[in-house]
Amino acid sequence: MEIYSTIIALVFFIFLIKLLKKSKTSKTSTKNLPPGPLKLPFVGNLPQVAAAGKVPHLGLQALAKKHGPVMQLQLGEIPLVVISSAKAAEQALRTNDLALADRPSLLLGEIGLANCRDIVFALYGDYWRQMRKICKSELLSVKKVRSFRAIREDESQHLLENIKNSVGSPFNFSESVAGMAHGVISRATTGKRSDDELVRIVEEISYWGAGFLVPDLFPSIKFLPTLTGMKKEIQKLRNAVDPIFDSIIEEHREKLARKKERKAMDNDADEEDLIDVLLRVNENERLEFPMTSNDIQGIVLDMFTAGIDTTSAVIEWAMTELMRNPRVMNKVQAEVRQVLRGKETINEDDIQGLPYLKLVIKEALRLHTPLPLLLPRQCRKECEIDGYHIPVNTKVIINAWAIGRDPEYWADAESFKPERFENNSVDFIGLDYDYLPFGSGRRMCPGMNFGIAGVELPLIQLLYHFDWKLPNNMKPEDLDVEDAFGSTTKRKNQLVLIPTSEYAAQKA
């Protein structure tokens, strides 16, 4: 009898606590909050999100069609506002950019990404501003991206050699393009190709970054990361990657010391990889926040997780859509082969003069936004979007994938039509809010130039040197376009194609 009395007393106590919290927040609740589906006790809207789609951006798009382009959800304990229109996205990313400049606290960032001492998950403030400045002026400047040209050309050539050995046979396009992207990122970042173990770790970290981990949704339940085993899994990844990067960073420190001895600090800046740059800046600049090895690890992990998946996904989806649309494939191949007629070797100088190819890339980015939900923001100062009140600490997500397919802004939105970008100024630099493949505002992806540079040359090579067909007599319209679960929009099923012939320069 006594135990039942204790349970009843405990339930009553919890009820009183919730009642007190409700009374304290009643002032906020009277404000005009965004609409949303009916919330269930404890779990909020998690069941509706799970039932609406196999991947988050699809599920959120389906719910937004019912509840509006500015929609409020409750995911466990987390208030979430989902924005699914260009008009609301502009208010979030331009008008209220500063109010929404923070990042939510996530288990992956705290454990897997150097306790949020990277760039992507760092809280908005002086440290983030310092690192963003270094990123824009040193790490990913136009000049620095150009300095990696030889690496991109070499890795593209390596990809071509692999394809030549598979002419007439099924070829795992997804796997090979991911390998090329890994080669570019690892060589640009560390100075050499990393081993397969690091690639595996990066892929797993990217998977955990999908953004809806149970412990992140119930942060007050402190034992949940341990209970679910997620803390252990992410910590295991961190423990695996730490010694790899510790060794690489130490090698670079020794190289920097040798450069200082021969007083050659600035003579070979074009040959620096990204770790070299970070160490040089840390050594030479009077930084407000000197970078530790942990900080450098976090930044390098950003480069790997963001660079490999996004670059390979864009090429993979562009090729998928070209295989599904023979008219577009014929048109872009004709342009590439006409402009580059007679060339045996293609380099980055040849990218100019291919306007239709650039439209193909733009259209692939529209239909298959690399980060479909961009990256979550946290409201640091209450604001208003589309007439709705957004309270402090609300998590805000921009469904850029849904905006890119919104028929209000895009005619025949589900079709792959590169011509839609002809004779207009829409671009991916963050000023067009109906087209946000790299985001916009303070938290816009700083690696945009690096990413585009990694897509253009290999795609030109693939279209110039080879003809392609689908395996097993598959029809173009039967090639699937299903997305995999994860933070990056990748194909659920790997793309397998048959390179049918090598287009030799002498045919031209």
UniProtKB/TrEMBL annotation:
It comes from the Eukaryota. SUPFAM superfamilies: Cytochrome P450. GO terms for biological process: sesquiterpene biosynthetic process. Heme binds at C445. The keyword S-adenosyl-L-methionine does not apply. The keyword Iron applies. InterPro entries: CYP450_71D, Cyt_P450, Cyt_P450_CS, Cyt_P450_E_grp-I, Cyt_P450_sf. One of its GO terms (molecular function) is monooxygenase activity. Keywords: Heme, Iron, Metal-binding, Monooxygenase, Oxidoreductase. Its cofactor is heme. Coiled coil: none annotated. Probable heme-thiolate monooxygenase. Belongs to the cytochrome P450 family. This is Cytochrome P450. It comes from Daucus carota subsp. sativus.
